[in-house]
Design goal:
histidine biosynthesis, EC 3.5.4.9, single chain, binds the ligand Nc1nc2c(c(=O)[nH]1)N[C@@H](CN(C=O)c1ccc(C(=O)N[C@@H](CCC(=O)O)C(=O)O)cc1)CN2, Rossmann fold, 6-stranded parallel beta sheet, alpha/beta, Bifunctional protein FolD, one-carbon metabolism
């Protein structure tokens, strides 16, 4: 078997085209979706992701305000920025790019973003709604992965989904989304015993461990759908995923490439969520008018 590649770049472009239309409709109603992106410090990768978010937003017609803050900023100073944009009615979405410098408690910051403007879907209120199968805002990476299943008609019903990695931004929300779509979900992590025994049972395998080419051919059931969330630099400085792509492509039915798989979908979903939040504002206004 040779795996079919799930092209995230192409799917993200399709999604952006639809979003452009939705933004135009919003603008006709006098609303321009507005996203505030806060970048703290000098992390070079974060700088690139923020730039890519800005470009994606521009292409669709979303207004962005990029705020660059110094590495040494205090937690309270950063919280003051979040508060300011929480209170600004022209802003529909706020995100703080992660990771943050060591002196700042990232949880405290993400928890300070108003749940209604939490385009990253990281706030505990939004995570709670997601786990209760009543999603309000969805973390962008797992939400992007769900779009592959939709696009390629990969049903999750009754399937065994095995997730390697239990982070708050990928593993845990991924588990909730797949559970909400009737998969049987196993979450594994660095302390899991006999990991390969579990990954070999997966109909759908999500690799989000942060270790270069960790998942080998022998860890994968023939015909499995394999999603590679990893972004690591190997010893030659090349970007590689958590999956040994060359080997695993020989046994998987579907595989997301790195680059060009999950990454572009993360940004597409951020755009989608920003538009959705702006549409909610319009619905509320329409509601008030019709009730009046
Ligand atoms: N506030 C947030 N911080 C972080 C998030 C997030 O969703 N919200 N996710 C990651 C970083 N990230 C977006 O912020 C992100 C990372 C990578 C990509 C991407 O498109 N990657 C490319 C490859 C890029 C390269 O060549 O280095 C790909 O996979 O094709 C998009 C978004 C952590 N922080
Ligand atoms: Mg990718």
């Amino acid at each position: 078997m040779v795996a079919k590649l799930l092209d995230g770049k192409k799917l993200a472009m399709e999604i952006r085209t639809h979003l452009k239309q939705r933004v135009q409709e919003l603008k006709q109603k006098g609303v321009t979706p507005k996203l505030v992106v806060i970048l703290v410090g000098n992390d070079s990768a974060s700088r690139i992701y923020v730039r890519n978010k800005h470009r994606a937003a521009q292409k669709i017609g979303i207004e962005t305000k990029d705020i660059e803050l110094p590495q040494e900023i205090t937690e309270n100073e950063l919280l003051a920025y979040v508060k300011k944009y929480n209170e600004d009615d022209s802003v529909h979405g706020i995100l703080v790019q992660l990771p943050l410098p060591a002196q700042i408690n990232a949880e405290k910051i993400t928890h300070a973003i108003a749940p209604a403007k939490d385009v990253d879907g990281f706030h505990p209120v939004n995570i709670g709604h997601l786990f209760m199968n009543d999603p309000h805002a969805l973390p962008c990476t797992p939400h992007g992965i769900m779009q592959f299943f939709k696009k390629y008609n990969i049903s999750l019903m009754g399937k065994h989904a095995v997730i390697v990695g239990r982070s708050n931004i990928v593993g845990r929300p991924m588990a909730a989304m797949m559970l909400n779509n009737d998969a049987t979900v196993t979450i594994t992590h660095s302390k899991t015993k006999n990991l390969s025994e579990l990954t070999r049972q997966a109909d759908i395998l999500i690799a989000a461990i942060g270790q270069a080419e960790f998942i080998k051919k022998t860890d994968v059931k023939p015909g499995a759908v394999v999603i590679d969330v990893g972004m690591n630099r190997n010893d030659k400085g090349k970007l590689v995923g958590d999956v040994d792509q060359k080997e695993v492509a020989e046994v998987a039915s579907y595989l997301t490439p790195v680059p060009g798989g999950v990454g572009p979908m993360t940004i597409a979903m951020l755009m989608e969520q920003t538009v959705k939040f702006a549409e909610r504002g319009v619905q509320n206004v329409d509601g008030e008018v019709s009730n009046g």
